[in-house]
Amino acid sequence: MNRPAKLSDRDTIIYEIDMLEHCHIKLVQAQPSSTLDRYTFLECFLLPYRNLLDFFGKEPHGDDLSISGAESWATDPVAAKGKIPQLQTKGQSLWHEYEDRKTRSDTISRYLHHCMKQRTVAKDWLVQEMYGKLSKLIQEFRQIIGCSYHVAVENSRLVDASTGMSTMTVETINSPVRPD
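RESULT FIELD:
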């Protein structure tokens, strides 16, 4: 069995947004009844949250996708460049709040990382507050790229990936056409 073609860089970011939004809905609106489901959706919320914090606010290294690298995700990189600094400043502020390991020990990464003592320290994740902060950046980002399509979710449900279930084997159904 072959994997489908890789998503574009823009689609990778949209995928992370879709996963974040889906898990937020599952945590807040659906309110999973079992403890295991709550833990599962919390971790599934935190992972794209951290990935998007890195995209919007972390200094990129190697082949990291970054808000500063408009040439990899923007339809019109020249037009996007003028709008990036404001988004990047907001993203850096959020990154420092949740991910800056120099100033805090309770980063999202430390709780999602390999087994370590940090994970035994109780942490109350304020999902609604966190989502509210990042969703503002996401809305502004979507305006910059003129994007309303989804890669991984539709109507708050994960899209069926009939070719397999990996984090990047996705297929869209009844979504607006993605720009190339």
